[in-house]
């Protein structure tokens, strides 16, 4: 599964695997793809540096990437404390009441919220970029639009390619004008933050809009046949996230959440603002339903919503409250029915890709053969 982009990056397969877990990212890279470690969950740059040091020691010198989240426009002198002070008390009360309704205990004294995502803050995201570029990464990706132009220049000076996710051709052109190298066309089916356009429509639109920049297809891709479809639509690779949540190397250790993911169908997700303030596809739970219900005060804009619900999500995860526990995941969850190691998933992807291409070759050959016979008979 080779393309010009995979050759440029020195990877065997044009499979880009986004994950928040270092062990999964390293395993994807070792299996011939490009593991991309999500940095948004790291509150401190030192924590990210520690995990990137681990990655360096476990990828065997093979290439990997880092994904950050930051606004394209620079904002000066805004701290996490400043943002938290903007959260209305009514929203805090709604969170408390919802947790109390389901009997979710408080965090133990001194316990830190694992879901406290401060990586949305520019000051934190910039520190993530600085740390990432101190390591031998080959790709810097940005999940919500392209990074500021000075960050793009910083990455290019280090010889690192820059990718940005896009949910429309307009967004993709904006990224291209800013100087990024790769556009990830993320369709409506994808997990996490998504737009309104499905992958089948979006990928060729973006490929045409930003040519000759390479495009990666994302959203609703979890098999080799789906990867082949992405390349047939004009992509030079595929970007997968959800399929790695239930692999054996995943740090998603909650038995309740794993069971929910493995049992979920493709219709068991919802785009909700309850996690970050922006529409993000995730498992449908009574938590997401509460935020869309008549008693909800409404979600707050990013990054306020993420800071508001951080402790609550840590409590839900920590105590495995079955009605409320969930995670960002795409509609491909319906095909995630068993726990397997990353290497097995990669093997199935590549074999499925080869089988799909061979099937299309046979179809094309049959059509060509029938056409030739018809002409000869005439």
Automatic annotation (TrEMBL):
> Keywords, A to Z?
Flavoprotein, FMN, Monooxygenase, Oxidoreductase
Enzyme's top EC category: oxidoreductase
EC annotation from Swiss-Prot or TrEMBL: 1.13.12.-
Give GO terms: molecular function aspect only: monooxygenase activity
Q: Which domain of life is it from?
A: Bacteria
Protein name per its UniProtKB record: Nitronate monooxygenase
């Amino acid at each position: 599964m080779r393309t010009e982009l995979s050759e440029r990056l020195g990877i065997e397969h044009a499979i880009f695997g986004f994950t928040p877990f270092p062990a999964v990212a390293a395993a994807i890279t070792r299996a011939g793809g490009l593991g991309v470690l999500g940095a948004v969950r790291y509150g401190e740059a030192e924590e990210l540096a520690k995990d990137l040091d681990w990655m360096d020691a476990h990828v065997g010198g093979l290439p990997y990437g880092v994904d950050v989240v930051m606004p394209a426009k620079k904002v000066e002198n805004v701290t996490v404390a400043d943002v938290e002070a903007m959260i209305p008390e009514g929203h805090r009360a709604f969170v408390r009441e919802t947790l109390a309704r389901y009997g979710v205990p408080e965090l133990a004294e001194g316990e830190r919220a694992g879901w406290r995502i401060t990586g949305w803050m520019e000051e934190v995201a910039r520190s993530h970029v600085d740390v990432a570029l101190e390591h031998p990464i080959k790709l810097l990706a940005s999940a919500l639009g392209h990074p500021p132009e000075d960050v793009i220049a910083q990455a290019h000076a280090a010889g690192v390619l820059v990718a940005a996710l896009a949910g429309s051709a307009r967004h993709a052109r904006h990224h291209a004008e800013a100087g990024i190298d790769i556009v990830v066309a993320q369709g409506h089916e994808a997990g996490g933050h998504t737009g309104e356009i499905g992958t089948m429509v979006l990928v060729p639109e973006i490929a045409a809009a930003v040519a000759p920049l390479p495009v990666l297809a994302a959203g609703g891709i979890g098999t080799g046949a789906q990867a082949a479809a992405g390349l047939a639509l004009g992509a030079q690779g595929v970007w997968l996230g959800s399929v790695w949540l239930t692999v054996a190397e995943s740090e998603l250790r909650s038995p309740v959440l794993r069971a929910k993911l493995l049992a979920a169908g493709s219709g068991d997700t919802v785009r909700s603002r309850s996690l970050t303030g922006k529409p993000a596809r995730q498992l449908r739970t009574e938590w997401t339903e509460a935020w869309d219900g008549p008693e909800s005060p409404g979600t707050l804009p990013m990054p306020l919503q993420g800071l508001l619900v951080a402790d609550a999500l840590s409590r839900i995860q920590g105590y495995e409250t079955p009605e409320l526990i969930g995670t960002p995941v795409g509609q491909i969850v319906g095909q995630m029915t068993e726990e397997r190691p990353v290497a097995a998933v990669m093997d199935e992807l590549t074999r499925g890709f080869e089988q799909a291409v061979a099937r299309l070759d046979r179809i094309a050959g049959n059509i060509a053969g029938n056409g030739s016979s018809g002409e000869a008979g005439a």
